[in-house]
């Protein structure tokens, strides 16, 4: 072993120990590891920041933005209400998510399948009361397992097919992977369903302020317009869209205030006085097709900015004190709408436009995001911590879905590479204003991207120093003396161990020739060994950095580095136990 190889193993070991310790944040650990690798000379200075241009970083960042756009569109909430209105049990929700992600991953890029389904996971988490972390990591693992089922499901399968053609003159076909891959996917999904208790309960550490603000109950009103889907429906049906976060305090019909009985049938022009969280109110208004208080705000041609809503507190010296939105002519005077009011300990019983504001009231106002900041001090309003308020925001429900479908089709048919397809989709989301530009960068999750970019050159040092070839030599010395099931298991385990530090396609390129030579030396057919390499390279459950699906859920799920082996290690053992006999049954070695 050379000195450089020793340094490469040492840096990887220290990095893994720091990740497992959890004392320092993962992006800081990754940056320190990169600096140490530079100081020891195992990463050249001209390659230090090559990770920032790597396709994986582009794919993960773009997928985060695309997923945020799909979530913001409200299409997921509408789909849940329509197709799974009574799906509240956490295990049933998890089963639906895992099966859907696995099936999608068999035919489209697994990170794309995960990005499509992540917003649904957050919807289910709110509905069942379970933390999103109980859904996201199992979904990432299901995406990896689903990719094993077809030739196009994951890049290791494509690469290993090419390797078989080079070795035997015959490539694997589309569904040659299905018998073993489907068996593993089913076993993995059952494992994550019945042993979900080992999945950690975490919260998104970046969302603590938002969660405390979200708990504030707002009062608002919305009108049932002519032709609305809510006409003829009961009040209970409409409020059900709020997932229990919204109650009605009255229904105004003409000049009459009606009691908010659950079975009251809504008519056109009824105004519903509601109370609930900002998110809950938004779900009711958008799903039921109601019109919020105030007039539509339209941007003039060529006018900069976007229509958005912000939260603010009415100050003691505010010119709005003791005035209502109607009396001051809030829209005509300032071009803004009052969407909701929260008053500590009180339930408002009148239309929002008639509520006289008091010092300390928490309000949501809507307007042009370019002019709102200057209006706040003029009106004597104190802005709260910034968070995304969707109440009253314009929706383009189908545009994000169409963009994502187009990107997935372009990558599936090989028209563009995956990184290009996802990057184009992310840019299109911003161009079509499905995600406001101010929120696009927040969706990218900088710490995750920095961690990935810093780790790519560090992990590549195993290859550049020849350490990966050294591993192959050690492996060869051991595997020659093993029976077929032992040799296959060793190949599988080694591929699983190596793929967090090489990308999965590189793992196949390194391991497939070794596996084929084992088979030839022992007088066996190579198919089972090549399949073992593909399975091992496609099943990285042990770290958040070995596959972009694992990385994608790390930030939103609030996971720690040590959470991945906690769930991934027993799942990896199960995969080895199931796959070895399955491979020998489907692909006999003689």
TrEMBL record:
Ranges annotated as spanning the membrane: 7-22, 28-45, 57-75, 95-122, 134-152, 172-195, 401-428, 440-458, 470-495, 501-522, 567-587
GO cellular component, one term: plasma membrane
Pfam families hit by this protein: CitMHS, TrkA_C
Extent of the signal sequence: none
Membrane topology: Multi-pass membrane protein
GO MF entries: monoatomic cation transmembrane transporter activity
Compartment annotation: Membrane
GO annotation terms (biological process): potassium ion transport
Domain annotation RCK C-terminal: ranges: 207-290, 297-381
This protein's UniProt keywords: Membrane, Repeat, Transmembrane, Transmembrane helix, Transport
PANTHER family registered for this protein in UniProt: BASIC AMINO ACID ANTIPORTER YFCC-RELATED
Name of the protein in its database record: SLC13 family permease
Organism, as annotated: Shinella sumterensis
């Amino acid at each position: 072993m050379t000195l450089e190889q020793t340094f490469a193993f040492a840096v990887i070991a220290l990095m893994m120990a720091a990740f497992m310790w959890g004392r320092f944040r993962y992006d800081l650990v990754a940056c320190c590891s990169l600096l140490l690798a530079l100081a020891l000379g195992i990463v050249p200075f001209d390659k230090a920041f090559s990770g920032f241009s790597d396709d994986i970083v582009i794919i993960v960042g773009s997928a985060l933005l695309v997923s945020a756009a799909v979530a913001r569109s409200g299409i997921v909430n509408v789909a849940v209400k329509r197709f799974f209105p009574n799906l509240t049990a956490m295990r049933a929700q998890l089963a639906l998510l895992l099966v859907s992600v696995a099936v999608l991953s068999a035919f489209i890029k697994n990170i794309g399948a995960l990005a499509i389904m992540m917003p649904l996971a957050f919807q289910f988490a709110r509905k069942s009361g379970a933390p999103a972390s109980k859904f996201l990591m199992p979904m990432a693992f299901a995406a990896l397992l689903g990719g094993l089922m077809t030739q196009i499901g994951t890049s290791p399968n494509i690469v290993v097919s090419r390797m078989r053609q080079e070795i035997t003159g015959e490539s694997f076909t589309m569904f040659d992977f299905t018998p073993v891959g489907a068996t593993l996917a089913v076993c993995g999904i059952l494992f994550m369903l019945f042993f979900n208790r080992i999945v950690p309960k975490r919260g998104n550490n970046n969302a603590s302020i938002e969660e405390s603000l979200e708990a504030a109950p707002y009062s608002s009103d919305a009108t049932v317009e002519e032709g609305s889907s809510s006409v003829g429906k009961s009040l209970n049906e409409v409020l059900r869209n709020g997932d229990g976060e919204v109650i009605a305090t009255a229904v105004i019909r003409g000049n009459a205030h009606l009691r908010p009985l659950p079975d009251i049938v809504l008519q056109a022009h009824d105004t519903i006085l509601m109370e609930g969280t900002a998110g809950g109110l938004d779900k009711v208004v958008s799903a039921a097709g109601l019109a919020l208080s105030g007039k539509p705000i339209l941007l003039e041609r060529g006018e900069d900015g976007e229509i958005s809503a912000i939260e603010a507190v009415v100050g003691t010296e505010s010119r709005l004190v003791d005035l209502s939105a109607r009396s001051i002519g809030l829209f005509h005077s300032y071009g803004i709408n009052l969407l909701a009011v929260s008053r500590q300990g009180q339930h408002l019983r009148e239309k929002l436009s008639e509520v006289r504001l008091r010092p300390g009231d928490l309000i949501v106002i809507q307007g042009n995001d370019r002019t709102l900041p200057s209006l706040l001090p003029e009106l004597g309003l104190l802005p709260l911590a910034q968070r995304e308020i969707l109440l009253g925001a314009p929706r383009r429900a189908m545009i994000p879905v169409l963009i994502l479908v187009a990107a997935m089709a372009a990558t599936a048919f090989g028209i563009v590479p995956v990184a290009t397809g996802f990057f184009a989709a992310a840019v299109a989301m911003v161009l079509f204003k499905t995600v406001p530009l101010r929120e696009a960068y927040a969706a990218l999750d900088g710490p995750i991207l920095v961690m990935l970019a810093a780790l790519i050159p560090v992990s590549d040092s195993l290859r550049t120093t020849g350490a990966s070839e050294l591993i192959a030599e050690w492996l060869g010395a051991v595997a020659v003396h093993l029976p077929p099931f032992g040799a296959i298991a060793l190949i599988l385990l080694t591929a699983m161990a190596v793929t967090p530090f090489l990308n999965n396609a590189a793992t196949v390129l390194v391991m497939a020739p070794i596996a084929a030579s084992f088979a030839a030396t022992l007088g066996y057919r190579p198919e089972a060994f090549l399949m073992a390499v593909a399975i091992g390279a496609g099943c990285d459950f042990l770290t958040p950095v070995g596959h972009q699906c694992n990385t994608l859920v790390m930030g939103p799920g609030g996971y720690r580095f040590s959470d991945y082996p906690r769930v991934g290690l027993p799942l990896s053992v199960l995969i080895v136990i199931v796959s070895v006999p399955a491979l020998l049954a489907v692909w006999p070695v003689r």
